[in-house]
Specification:
Elements (H helix, E strand, L loop, with lengths): L1 E5 L20 E2 L2 E2 H11 L4 E6 L3 H8 L8 E6 L22 E5 L2 E3 L3 H10 L4 E6 L9 E4 L5 E5 L11 E9 L15 H11 L4 E5 L4 E3 L3 H12 L10 E4 L2 E3 L4 E2 L4 E2 L3 E3 L4 E2 L4 E2 L3 E3 L4 E2 L4 E3 L2 E2 L4 E2 L4 E3 L2 E2 L4 E2 L4 E2 L4 E2 L2
Parallel strand pairs: 1-4, 1-6, 4-5, 8-12, 15-18, 16-19, 17-20, 18-21, 19-22, 20-23, 21-24, 22-25, 23-26, 24-27, 25-28, 26-29, 27-30
Antiparallel strand pairs: 2-3, 6-11, 7-13, 8-11, 9-10, 9-11, 14-15
C-alpha cells in the first residue's frame, strides 16, 4: 500500500499562523503536524508516499526530506496552481497505478489505523472508502449519508439547518483503488467531495463509509487547533508526547533548565533546550516549544508557544498562541484569544 499526503493548501482559516508557513508545518505537540501523519504511515508499514506541494514548499521538503527518519521513500508533486484535493492525484497516475492507496490530509490529527481501514475497504470491495466521523460542528463540514450496508447514499456540502440531519462528517481520509484515477481530469481543479464522489455515485460505482469512533480533529482553524492541544494533554488523542514525564502530566525535553521556585502544574509540555526563569509559573494546558525562554516571575497558562519564543520577566500570557520567535517585553499581558506571529 502507498499513500498520498495532501499538503498544498494555503491555510487561510488558520491565519496569521500560516502567513509564512504551510499548514502541515504548524506545530502540534511541539512537532510539525506532518510528522504525526508520517508516523501513522510508518506504523502501518507503508514504505512509499507522495506529498503535493504549493504553499511554502521548501519548508516541507527541508523538514521531511526523502522520508528516511520514518523509513519512507517520499515523492513530491509540485503544483503551479492549486488543483483541488482530487486533482492533485492526476500527475501521480503512474505512482498509484498498481495498488490500493490511502489519502490523508497534512493538517488532520487522528488515531486512525490504516491497516484496519484497508481491511474494511477490501472486505466491502469498494472502489473508494471514506472515513466518517461524528461531530457536533456539522455546519463546517460536508455531511455523508449511509445506507444499511455501509454504502454511501448521498452528500450534503455546507448544510442548512434543515439539512443537518446526516450524522457523519467526511474526515478527508480515504482508501481507494487505482481505477479511481480514470475519473480525474488533467489540468483543471477537481475536488473529492464536490466533483469525484458525486460523479462516481452517478455512474453506480461503490463508495463505502468507514465509521470511525476514534479521535479525529481538523486543525484548519484556530478554535480546533486549540482544542486539539487540550485533547492531547487530556489523553483523548493518541499523539506521542516528546520528553520525559518528570511528574504526573508534566513532560520536559532534553537540556531544559528549570530554575528554583518554578511552579509546574500539569498537564503541560516543555520542549528541548528551554529555559524557565526563577519563580515562573507554567500552568495547566500549556505547550512550551523548543528553546523558549521564560523570564523570572512570568506566568504562562493555557497557551501554545512555538519554538524560540522569549517571554520577559513578569509577563503574563493566558489563552494565547505565540509563533516562532515571538518576543514579549517586560510588564505586558496577553489574554484569551491573542495570536502573535512574526
Amino acid at each position: 500500500m502507498k499513500a498520498m499526503i495532501l499538503a498544498a493548501g494555503e491555510g487561510m482559516r488558520l491565519r496569521p499562523l500560516t502567513i509564512s508557513r504551510p499548514k502541515p508545518m504548524v506545530p502540534v505537540a511541539n512537532k510539525p503536524n506532518i510528522s504525526h501523519v508520517l508516523d501513522k504511515l510508518a506504523h502501518a508499514g507503508i514504505k512509499e508516499a507522495a506529498i503535493n506541494l504549493y504553499s511554502y514548499p521548501r519548508q516541507i521538503k527541508s523538514y521531511v526530506g526523502r522520508g528516511k527518519p520514518w523509513g519512507l521513500n517520499i515523492f513530491y508533486s509540485q503544483e503551479k496552481d492549486l488543483s483541488g484535493t482530487a486533482g492533485s492525484l492526476a500527475p501521480l497516475r503512474n505512482f498509484f497505478k498498481d495498488e490500493t492507496f490511502a489519502v490523508l490530509s497534512g493538517d488532520g490529527v487522528s488515531d486512525i489505523n490504516l491497516i484496519e481501514l484497508e481491511a474494511f475497504h477490501k472486505r466491502h470491495r469498494a472502489l473508494a472508502t471514506l472515513v466518517l466521523v461524528r461531530n457536533d460542528a456539522r455546519f463546517d463540514y460536508g455531511l455523508v449519508r449511509l445506507n444499511g450496508d455501509h454504502q454511501v447514499a448521498g452528500f450534503i456540502e455546507k448544510p442548512s439547518w434543515s439539512e443537518a440531519f446526516a450524522p457523519y462528517i467526511n474526515s478527508g481520509i480515504y482508501m481507494m483503488e487505482p481505477e479511481v484515477l480514470k475519473w480525474i481530469p488533467d489540468g483543471e481543479p477537481f475536488d473529492f467531495a464536490r466533483d469525484l464522489w458525486p460523479r462516481l455515485m452517478a455512474e453506480g460505482k461503490k463508495l463505502c463509509g468507514y465509521v470511525f469512533g476514534g479521535y479525529w480533529c481538523d486543525i484548519g482553524n484556530l478554535k480546533e487547533y486549540r482544542r486539539c492541544h487540550r485533547d492531547i494533554l487530556e489523553g483523548r488523542a493518541n499523539i506521542k508526547i516528546s520528553g520525559t514525564q518528570i511528574e504526573p502530566n508534566v513532560w520536559v525535553g532534553e537540556k531544559t533548565r528549570i530554575a528554583k521556585g518554578v511552579i509546574l502544574r500539569g498537564p503541560i509540555v516543555i520542549g528541548d533546550g528551554a529555559v524557565i526563569g526563577k519563580n515562573a509559573k507554567i500552568m495547566p494546558y500549556s505547550f512550551i516549544g523548543d528553546y523558549c525562554r521564560i523570564g523570572g516571575g512570568a506566568v504562562v497558562e493555557e497557551s501554545i508557544l512555538w519554538k524560540c519564543v522569549t517571554i520577559a520577566k513578569g509577563v503574563r500570557v493566558s489563552g494565547c498562541v505565540l509563533a516562532d520567535g515571538t518576543r514579549l517585553k517586560e510588564s505586558v499581558s496577553f489574554f484569551e484569544g491573542a495570536i502573535l506571529s512574526v
